[in-house]
Amino acid sequence: MDYIALGKEIRELRRKRNLTQEKLAELADLSVPYISHLERGTKKPSLAVLVRLADSLDVTVDRLLSGNQEKDTVAFFPEVQELLADCSVLERVVLTEIVCAAKRSIRTHKLSHPP
To answer: Could you tell me the domains of the chain?
Structure first.
C-alpha cells in the first residue's frame, strides 16, 4: 500500500471540498496532528479511520484507495466520469481522441505495462 499516495489523495479531496485539516479532523473525529500525519503518509490508518475519512470527505473508501492496488482495473473511472459530466458531445469526442493518442504514445515508448 502506498501511504504517501493515499495521503495526497486525502489532502486533495480535503482541499477540493474547502476543508481545513481542523475541520476534517472534527468531521472524522480525529486529531489535527493525525490528519497531518495521514496526509504526509507517515501514519497507517485503520479500516475504521478510512471509513470515517471517506464519510467526512463524502466519497467511498474505494475512491480513497483508487490506484493503490496494482490489479485495480477501475481506478480513476469515477474521476474521469466526473470530469466528463459537464462536457458536450464534441468535447467528449476530442478528449477521447486525446486519451487514445496519449495511450498509444505511452505504450509505444514502453512507459507502462498494459493490464
So the answer is: 3-65 (1.10.260.40)
